[in-house]
Amino acid sequence: MMRYRTICLLLIPFLLLGCGKKKAQKQTFDPTIPVEISVISQTDDNNLRNYVGTTKSEMELPVSFPLGGKLTGVYVKNGQHVKKGALIARVDETSAKSIHDAALATLNQAEDGYNRLKQVHDEGGIPDVRWVQMETDLEKARQTEITTRKQLNECTLRAPQEGFISMEEHTTGENLLPSTPFCRIIDMNKMIVEFSVPEKEIGIIQVGDQAEATFPGLNNLTKTIEIIDKSFVSNPMGHTYTIKAKVPVANKDILPGMVAKIKLSLSEASGIVVPSSCVLTMPEGADVWTVKNGKAYRRNIKVGGFVKNGVMVDSGLQSGDTIITAGYQKLYNGSKVSF
After folding, report:
1. Which of 41, 83, 246, 293 would you label with 94, given CA atoms 20 to 30 Å apart?
2. Domain 32-46+270-338 carries which CATH code?
3. pLDDT, tens digit, 9 for 90 and up, residues 145-159
4. Full-prediction pTM beyond 0.70?
């Protein structure tokens, strides 16, 4: 037992010496992390917005057979240019012609009876009640003939305006439903581009504003477009608003359905702008790393919209603050940094 106590007493100084060394090492372990910084300042810049839209004709008119029927002839092709009044297609007019012929025969009969009795009526040979009935029957016959003639004419489809035909494939003999669009006539001289904007931006976009539209499908052809209309009712799915802009057309180079990348410069924005790469998205919001007295600290900020040089900061930073733009991956609050 005395031997065991003696060994423990001899080991105590060594154990204390080892703990002292570990404590000293722990106290001296304070690494400095190299970073890149930027001193922020108030910035005046064009508030540039980017959107994606599609082109369409401002005058895109659907045409259809009001009463439908069996298709008997198609006289145009998809993409064909037609003038106003050009024959497009026909449906079977047998039934409509039969009804019109009957109405026309009734009208002829009514007109003949009217002409025969008119002279007698003028001489006072028939009572006024009989004559009023005759006039009523004649007018009914006229209106019936007009209606049935219109239905007969509607068996033939003609172009209501000049433009280009856009339609799906149709075959003779197919049955067309009433008022179902048979084709569309597109005016290629009046093209627009439609795009959606968030609800927080619709108020600063005005009719008459100009933007730049680039068309990837036309070797990045760029045109200046003008805002001509903006909706006042939002899309319930995405809470966005539709903007329409007029596109200048040369040689009918812009086709319906093309994708357009739009850059819209809104009113000048003034404020704090930081690079978007240094903004960290966290569950509690957006953060950036700042430097104060040689140490790094994470700071919560409130971001606004995007501008061409980065992100607009609404609150959380002031002019003169130093932010870390690179090397923040290994940082922790209070870590020493060098730059």
Report:
1. 83
2. 2.40.420.20
3. 999 999 999 999 999
4. no
